[in-house]
Amino acid sequence: MDAKIRRFIYIPAIGITVALLTFWLWTRRNEEPTPAGLTRSDRALSTAEDLLKASLASYGGIDRTSQIREITLKNAITVYGENQSRIQGYSNECYRFPDKVRVDFAFGANQVSHLFDGTAAWTRTGGNWAKGPDYLTEGLRRSLKHFPTTLLTTALDDRTLLKGIVPKNLDGKRCLTIELTDREGDQSRIWFDDETLLMARIDYPVFTSLGVDSMTILMTDYREAGGIQTPFRVAIYYNGDRAQDITIKEVVINPRLDDSLFVPSHGKE
What we know:
Blueprint: H1 3-8, H2 21-24, H3 48-59, H4 62-65, E1 70-80, E2 86-96, E3 100-107, E4 110-116, E5 121-124, E6 130-131, H5 134-143, E7 161-170, E8 173-181, E9 187-193, E10 199-208, E11 211-225, E12 228-238, E13 241-253
Antiparallel strand pairs: 1-2, 1-13, 2-3, 3-4, 4-5, 5-6, 7-8, 8-9, 9-10, 10-11, 11-12, 12-13
């Protein structure tokens, strides 16, 4: 398998989908005033916190997102490698908040699984589970914070810095952007569609085998899934290079996952 492709599949394919706005509601401090020249939706959005709350309402509202305990995703994916090479396959993702995630990839005969059990990462390529490298642990652990938690009312953090609202264009579409530095020091820029207030793009750092890269995620084709607006098409770029195209085939919220899914077994499953 192409080395670049192997590198990309170490990160969960979706990483940020369904109602991940709750995380950014943690970040309501040190806001800047809205600049002049904003239109329609901006008139009622004087701060970045206002924008985040309005976007959360567009996703389905805090009553629904705060009830999310688990999410599963089934995806068709295309992973891009060197010299325009590509492979197509499928992935199943299982998230249990706040601290567990498992991703199973299938590319033809190649089967790859990644697991974060709340403490460490584990990886499996067709055989037994083995403890994963530190960057995989960090990548999987941090992927969980891009999803909503059940502790929204206690998750607001004074240590997080938030810069608000700057209008930008994305492929001819007007967006509102904010920048944040979270309590772990990670910086992100979020782009909200000005009409729907749903997220259209996010830029943030990601941990890979070669260090910290820049990741951009584009989200389109929003539909309702379990009462939550969900992007069913996602494109991922690493350091400006096209890395993955993802089509979500199925979303299940609160499926009551078996505990064994998040425990690396000593033998083959």
